[in-house]
Amino acid sequence: MFQKLFHRLLQGIVVLIVLFTITFFLCRALPGGPFVSEKALPEHVKALMMERDGYNKPVHEQYFMRLGNLMRGDAGLSTRLSGRPVNDVIAQSFPVSFQLGCLSMMLALVVGIPAGVIAAWKKNMSVDFIVMTLAMLGLCLPSFVVGPILAALVGRQWKLLPAMGWEPTNVITWLLPMVTLGMVYAAYLARLTRSGMLDVLSQDFVRTARAKGVPTHRILIKHCLRGGLVPAAAYLGPAFAGIISGSLVIELVFQVPGLGRHFVKAIETNDVNVIMGIVLLYGGLVVLGNILSDFLILWLNPRARAQS
Predict the structure, then answer these.
(1) Which of 51, 196, 61 is nearest to 121 (CA)?
(2) What's the N-to-C CA distance of the chain in angstroms?
(3) What is d(CA 94, CA 179) in angstroms, rounded to the nearest whole number?
(4) Which class for 31: exposed (0-12), middle (13-18), buried (19 or more C-beta within 10 A)?
(5) Cβ atoms of residues 15 and 282 within 8 Å
(6) Which tens digits make up the pLDDT trace of 152-180?
(7) Residue % of the chain over a pLDDT of 70
(8) Domains plus CATH for the chain?
């Protein structure tokens, strides 16, 4: 178990280094430069700023300088926000993005897993047809399409919920962004849970339990649920990655004060340090989510645990 954890951590470190390398050279390919703005800077000021941030050095020196700074936890200064530390920008905005991602993930789990279990138990019945139709509809409509529609209808036209804004203590402001981001992944989880439960429900021990008169809820929860959730557990890592990266777009749609607005503005203004900091933060969360997903599979599946 600990050997597997060590190997996964090493793989995660390699993934983050590759992600840093790709992001570094993509940022260099962006048009303009980090000090290009509507108001032209004096040449001597621009030269001092380039020297401060290392832009006057060769590319390979810039690469290792930024990599070393990030490994020490120093993401540098934002060129767009008048030299504000990137760590402060992330510390201020990330809690909102993280809260939105966690709430959306909880919604996906609460809706998707029970829906998949019910659809599997009622296979080829009207309930199964309805659940799978809704799941297919959820898969076909991405969150960046659903978000503006919900904001226009529910928020502006019907005035049932706030279409913009976010208050950490006001549940009403969470609902539209949370539903928009979470329902797509609830659809995936419903289909995967149904598939896993159908595989378990076809086993001999389930037929034996039914013949003995074991109650339905006990068969589903005690005998089938743990094995039936393995496909859904394998998807949780990529789902977590999709939710936290998708929140950047949803934040712009519903004007949520998270990292999304900083990320988009940083790309528009070539604010390399902010781009690097946010990309590596989300990359680290994706790696962590996949590691936790692997260990959840080992806990749910004794056969995989024995092989590891």
Answers:
(1) 196
(2) 7
(3) 20
(4) exposed
(5) no
(6) 999 888 989 998 888 888 899 999 999 99
(7) 93
(8) 86-307 (1.10.3720.10)
Distance CA 257, CA 271 (A): 19
- Using one digit for the tens of pLDDT, what is the confidence trace for 247-275? 777 888 898 888 888 888 888 888 888 99
Alpha-carbon gap, residue 6 to 26, rounded angstroms: 30
Question: Which phi and psi angles does 201 have, rounded to 5°?
Answer: -65, -20
CA distance 228 to 63: 46
CA distance 144 to 155: 16
DSSP 149-216: HHIIIIIIIS-SS-SS---TT-GGGGHHHHHHHHHHHHHHHHHHHHHHHHHHHTSHHHHHHHHTT--H
What is the mean pLDDT of the segment spanning 34-38? Answer: 62
- Give the model's pLDDT for residue 299: 79
Place of tokens 């090493």: 10
Residue 34's φ and ψ, nearest 5 degrees, are: -70, -15
CB atoms near residue 85 (< 10 Å): 16
CA-closest candidate to residue 25, choices 298, 306, 288, 272: 272
Q: Are 304 and 240 in contact (CB under 8 A)?
A: no
φ, ψ at 77 (rounded to 5°): -115, 150
Q: Report CA-CA distances (Å) from 201 to 130, 186, 207, 240.
A: 20, 22, 8, 28
pTM: 0.83
Number of CB atoms found within 10 A of residue 253's CB: 21
Rounded to an integer, what distance in angstroms lies between the CA atom of residue 81 and that of residue 206?
61
